[in-house]
Amino acid sequence: MQKPAPTDHPIHEVLQHRWSPRAFSGKPVPPDILRSLFEAARWAPSSANEQPWAFLVATKDDAEAHAKALSTLAESNQIWAQNAPVLGIAIARLNWVKTGQPNRTAFYDTGAAVAGLTVEATSRGLFVHQMGGFDPKKARELFHVPAEWEPVAAFVLGYPGDPESLPEPYLSREKNARARKPLTEFVMAGDWGKPAGFLKF
User: Fold this and answer.
1) What angle in degrees, to the nearest 10, is found between the helix axes of 31-42 and 106-123?
2) In which domain, by residue range, is 147 found?
3) What pLDDT, on the 0 to 100 scale, is given for residue 156?
């Protein structure tokens, strides 16, 4: 199912076709493709090149790990995510390696790494659905995440599936039109709340 973004201005087609479906095929993602996706994450920008990210990844061929990862998701997400061949958790290192002081940009940088992975996945016909609906504490306990690392978000990765396989209300959400705030609400210049001048045309 394709749901290209109804953009107001031209953007790259890979970005336009990126979205977060809930209907995933059970088709496995080949290891070489998974390596390329995480290679894309590896080359994301980060403050002082700290690269404060790590990923827990569970594929369906490791049934135990997949079940553990699935159990960390909110029940409403488990309903559809169970079909996906790959589940993941993005984790950020909270403190700088050299100084031990808090790294204020750790979550930001980890998000950039996931964004790189997501764009690479979209370019290969795969989709990523990122979620805040998971239990970080349970993920920490089940996967023995060290104290200096924080589970940030969970994600589902795979090939698109049949939307009709989804129960309600997920089927309706899958078919809903995509929408975003206009640029004038969040691109500012000169003062808070003042839309940037280049937005006028």
Assistant:
1) 140
2) 13-161
3) 98
